[in-house]
Specification:
Elements: H1 29-51, H2 56-77, H3 88-109, H4 112-134
Transmembrane segments: 32-51, 57-76
Protein name: YrdB family protein
Keywords: Membrane, Transmembrane, Transmembrane helix
């Protein structure tokens, strides 16, 4: 008999407690690179939104709205917890579009080398992530 509270609806067995000595799931270098690429992509969109407009209020609006729109699109179609079930091809299309948009932001600002390096690193990160997801 355990002292764990149970819901009156839960008629199954009481799950064992979480083992505190069990090691946590390891975070690989590819996961860290993936997080850095996503964060830099959102920063790229925000920087473009701020830098590309002469008047301050459209710059602020685009600096907030552009990365917010990209994050919502990524969540809806590409996220592992996406509410919309998307196949692999759809996920590739969405991620490619977001990476190219972030790279194009740097090109439009006048720093094409930063955009090219970002696109190449994001492509490498995306290929590794898809290989791990589909394996």
């Amino acid at each position: 008999m355990t002292n764990a509270p149970q819901s009156p609806v839960d008629w199954g067995e009481v799950p064992p407690p979480v083992d505190a000595d069990r090691p946590r799931r390891r975070v690989s270098g590819w996961t860290v690179l993936r997080i850095v690429v996503c964060a830099f992509g959102l920063f790229s969109l925000a920087f473009w939104g701020y830098w590309s407009w002469i008047l301050p209020w459209p710059g602020y609006l685009f600096a907030i709205g552009t990365p917010l729109f990209a994050a919502v699109v990524w969540y809806l179609f590409r996220s592992p917890r996406s509410p919309i079930d998307t196949d692999v091809v759809g996920k590739v299309i969405v991620e490619t579009a977001l990476v190219i948009a972030a790279g194009a932001c740097w090109v439009s600002i006048g720093l094409p080398l930063v955009g090219l390096v970002f696109v190449l690193v994001a492509a490498l990160s995306g290929v590794v992530a898809f290989r791990r997801e589909t394996a």
